[in-house]
Target: F-box domain-containing protein
Amino acid sequence: MDSYNRKAAVKQQHSLSYAKSSNGTRVATDLCRASTSKQYSSLLKPDRTTTSSSVPAVESPKDQVPVNELVQLGRQAFAQKNFATALQYLTRALAIAPKDINLLDSRAASYEKLNRLDGALADAKSMIRYYPQNPKGYLRAGKTLRLQQNFKNATKYYTVGIERCVKGSKEYEALVRIATEIAKRELRILDPMERLPLELIAIIFSHLTFVERVRCLTVSKKWEEYLGSIKKFWLTIDVTNQASLLLLKPHYAKYAPPQPDQETNNKITNKTILRLTKYTAPKVLQLGCAQQLNGAFFKDLIFYRRVSALEVLSLRENPKIYEQEFTLFWKSALNIRSLDLYGCRGVTDKVVILALELLLQLEELNISECRITEASFMINSMTPMPSMKKLIVGTWESQFAKEGIDALVARFPNLITLDIRTMRPRGIEALEGISGLRHLKHLYTESIETSGEHATNAVLHRWVVGIPELESLQMNACKGISDTTIQIIANASEPGSDRHGWSNSLRMLDLSSSPYLTCAGLEHLHQHPLHKLHTLLLNKCGRVSEYGLRRAVKSCGAELSRLECSGYSSVSDKLMVEIAQYCPKIEMVHLANSGMVTGIGLLTLVHARGQSLERICLDDCPAVGIDAVELAREMLGSTVRVSHRFHRSHRY
Model:
């Protein structure tokens, strides 16, 4: 029996394969053999002169121990947290089987426990060199590098391992999972919420538009919690497509009537707005053309008590909110100061009457293109609303008589802005009562029917006498405008005299599409100039020639910032030279459809005014060469500042 055991031991000594015992019987048998053999006595009692930092010398072939025994003893030592002893056993086993991947992995684990990370990394690299398609080497190398805080190289090893290794094994899945975790950790390191003080983050978020701030809510839960905690960010809910309020309105558009956004936004629903109002009760609701909102939206706002602080409401062209919902909403939102309901089909006379009765702090009201009549102002007309400063009203479906306009004036005596461009008055005589608005600064009308020149001038004279400091006047496409109109407007007001005019106050004048205005009327501006005129619009006045436009520019150009004179075939480079010479503050020039303007005039204007020019429109000007346009754009430093588009029928 002893000779048989010795032969089996010699045969086992040359075997490289090993496996972890599945039961305690195999382990006990091996330990018994080791204890009865003299050559195994040294394994149970390692050399005390060998330190944990030194690697034992390789045994001679005569004293070599089977690999399985060394592995079992190394694992037992590792399980007992005797990592130095485990390292000795595994090193001796690797001297017999230097390319065994499991031995290399086990020794690297022992090195890690002893905090000898360089040795662990060397074994991991050996595993990758011998077995490049096995995930174990990449896992061990990545783990060691992460312990060294070298996340960048660890990520590289994980990435290379994912590319080289065969899919399907548990080790490969672990490789993918760890690589994903490291990528997320790197993102968290770059997260400004983790790196910057909260005060600085609040300043950064305050410079974002509302839509950009809403997108930030979806980054992470931490971002959502922090943004939701800053109540001031949600006092204004603006989901319109308008430009950011941080982008200031151009100076040349200062006195022009507003052009609100009318782009339909079908992504805005009841649920969307209610989610945004959960952080705090908003003061401003700018909803734009949200046509998917219905009457339940107002009911939900009232139910969740989100209307008590509301001061501004803008809801345009909505067809799904009806009269009943509006009347219910007014009873809860009593602090509204600005109301924009342009084109809402549910706004009727009843809705307007109730709003004027309940909303006593109302300052701005836009009910243009709604289903209203003059009766909405005639009822309770003897109860004035002195707080109202801006009114935009009118509809093409019904006409307003003189009685309705007089009731409007009596109801809102302190109006500063009156926009009736969409109103159909019964002749210009119906607007005579506007002269009672002594505080009026801005008056915008369009396409007013008139019985003749005398009626128009009579009404305009009443306006001049009753409104002493008008700044903006738009009478576009009014057939009653003539040369006498210019004389009435340009007269200087003299105390104690019958002469009244707006020559010292008018900043914006729009008399476009006036068929009876001639050069003689503009010549009058040479004698009585409008010294403070900022914007002048004289588009498509059929009887005006270049001479009259030049006289107007020469007399009123000192403060002129915006000039529009499109649709004149007689306009040439002479007008461009006059603008360059007499308009030092010019920012916008609109000369579309000018038949005789050339590139020389364009370059003269650009060279004289330079970077102060914000926009030059020369659309459909056939005599302007493309080379001059490109040179002007280069001088101004922007391609959008010079507009030069052509209809197909135009040629150079």
User: Anything to note?
Assistant: The longest strand covers residues 284-288.
